[in-house]
Structure formats: C-alpha cells, structure tokens
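Re: weekly structure request thread

Next one in the queue (140 aa):
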Amino acid sequence: MQLAISDARQGLQEGGIPIGSVLVRDDIVVASGHNKRVQEDNPILHGEMDCLLNAGRIGSYRNTVIYSTLMPCYMCAGTIVQFKIPKVVVGESRTFAGAREFMESHGVEVVDLDLAECQEMMEDFIREKPTLWNEDIMEL
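Done, posted below.
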C-alpha cells in the first residue's frame, strides 16, 4: 500500500488527482500507476486503469492482488471483475464509497484498510479542488 500512496502523491505533485494503485502477483510488484486524467487529458485513466496499462499483457490475473488508495469506481471495478482479479485492497472508502458491493457480488475479495493517511490525502484534495474531484466522479 505504501507504493500506491507514493504513486498517489506523485499524481498530486503533477497536478492530478491523488489516487495510486499497485498490481502484485505472488508478492512481487508487477506494475504501479496513478490517476492521470488531468495530466494526459484522458477521462478513463484512473489509478487502477493506469496501473493495469503499465502492467501490459500478463496473461492471467487470477493470482494477483490490486491495491488502490481509494475504493475503485464502477469503471475500475468492472475491469477488475472482467480480468478476474480475485482481491482488492483499498486504503479507504470514506471519501468515496465506490463499487465494493459490485465487486463482492462477482466474487472479488475486498479489504478496506481504512487508513487515515489515505483519507486525509483525499479530504485535503477534495477541499482544495472540489470541481476537479466532482469531474472525476462525474458529479458536475
């Protein structure tokens, strides 16, 4: 999770949304990424999507775990379900509830660490850039 948090902080430094993600297979980091919607002017480049893009074609995802600093949205959750990633570990879901029930209903194990560090990072961002946040979650 610390690598995902570092990626989220990098995204924030780049002027983007502070959400980071890491894909792990057999306790080895396959790839990491962060939300780049702003930096690359790409509406679907959420943290999880950037991480999976960086992973490239790895064949089966069945023995992987994806870490994210924030509960995945329905778009990212759909990709997690489609790729049959069996487990998601999230930093927090208080600032954004995301699609936990959707993933669980498709057999994905979801672990919410409820980390103050992740929550504070998102709360600060939402307070400082509410319009950008609302664009990200399609609440404009």
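The two ends are 30 Å apart (CA to CA). The chain is about 40% helix and 20% strand.
Next request, please.
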